Amino acid sequence: MGDRFKIRAYCSSRTCDYVHKEDVMTAINYESAYSLAIAYNAYPAKPGCPSCGEPITFYAHSVLEVPWPNA
Ligand SMILES: [Zn+2]
What we know:
18% helix
Protein backbone atom coordinates (compact mmCIF):
# COMPACT_ATOMS: atom_id res chain seq x y z
CA MET A 1 0.00 0.00 0.00
CA GLY A 2 1.13 3.54 -0.53
CA ASP A 3 1.84 5.87 -3.37
CA ARG A 4 3.68 4.72 -6.45
CA PHE A 5 6.21 6.96 -8.08
CA LYS A 6 6.66 6.69 -11.78
CA ILE A 7 8.32 8.36 -14.69
CA ARG A 8 6.33 9.02 -17.80
CA ALA A 9 7.40 10.30 -21.19
CA TYR A 10 5.62 13.12 -22.96
CA CYS A 11 6.23 14.97 -26.19
CA SER A 12 7.85 18.34 -25.55
CA SER A 13 5.99 20.02 -28.41
CA ARG A 14 3.05 22.19 -27.42
CA THR A 15 1.23 21.33 -30.59
CA CYS A 16 1.42 17.59 -30.01
CA ASP A 17 -0.28 15.69 -27.24
CA TYR A 18 1.66 12.47 -27.50
CA VAL A 19 2.09 10.65 -24.19
CA HIS A 20 3.92 7.38 -24.00
CA LYS A 21 1.29 4.92 -22.82
CA GLU A 22 3.47 2.92 -20.51
CA ASP A 23 5.43 4.14 -17.55
CA VAL A 24 9.10 4.39 -18.31
CA MET A 25 10.24 3.46 -14.83
CA THR A 26 8.89 2.96 -11.35
CA ALA A 27 10.83 4.39 -8.43
CA ILE A 28 10.71 3.83 -4.69
CA ASN A 29 10.05 7.47 -3.81
CA TYR A 30 9.43 10.82 -5.41
CA GLU A 31 13.01 12.01 -4.97
CA SER A 32 14.43 9.12 -6.96
CA ALA A 33 11.72 9.42 -9.61
CA TYR A 34 12.45 13.12 -9.93
CA SER A 35 16.21 12.69 -10.20
CA LEU A 36 15.78 9.86 -12.71
CA ALA A 37 13.54 12.09 -14.82
CA ILE A 38 16.22 14.78 -14.76
CA ALA A 39 18.86 12.23 -15.75
CA TYR A 40 16.70 11.00 -18.62
CA ASN A 41 16.09 14.55 -19.79
CA ALA A 42 19.84 15.22 -19.78
CA TYR A 43 20.57 12.15 -21.85
CA PRO A 44 21.77 13.35 -25.26
CA ALA A 45 20.32 10.53 -27.31
CA LYS A 46 16.74 10.79 -26.13
CA PRO A 47 14.14 9.25 -28.37
CA GLY A 48 12.05 11.52 -30.51
CA CYS A 49 8.29 11.68 -30.46
CA PRO A 50 6.93 8.98 -32.77
CA SER A 51 4.15 11.33 -33.77
CA CYS A 52 5.97 14.58 -34.62
CA GLY A 53 9.71 13.97 -34.07
CA GLU A 54 10.16 16.58 -31.35
CA PRO A 55 12.21 15.54 -28.30
CA ILE A 56 10.52 13.51 -25.61
CA THR A 57 10.45 14.94 -22.10
CA PHE A 58 10.35 12.85 -18.96
CA TYR A 59 8.31 13.71 -15.88
CA ALA A 60 8.09 12.18 -12.46
CA HIS A 61 4.62 11.64 -11.12
CA SER A 62 3.00 9.79 -8.30
CA VAL A 63 0.05 7.48 -8.49
CA LEU A 64 -2.20 7.33 -5.49
CA GLU A 65 -3.15 3.82 -4.62
CA VAL A 66 -6.85 3.52 -4.15
CA PRO A 67 -7.47 1.84 -0.80
CA TRP A 68 -10.73 0.30 -2.01
CA PRO A 69 -9.89 -0.99 -5.49
CA ASN A 70 -12.85 -3.35 -5.68
CA ALA A 71 -15.50 -1.01 -4.34
ZN1 LIG B 1 5.05 14.95 -30.64
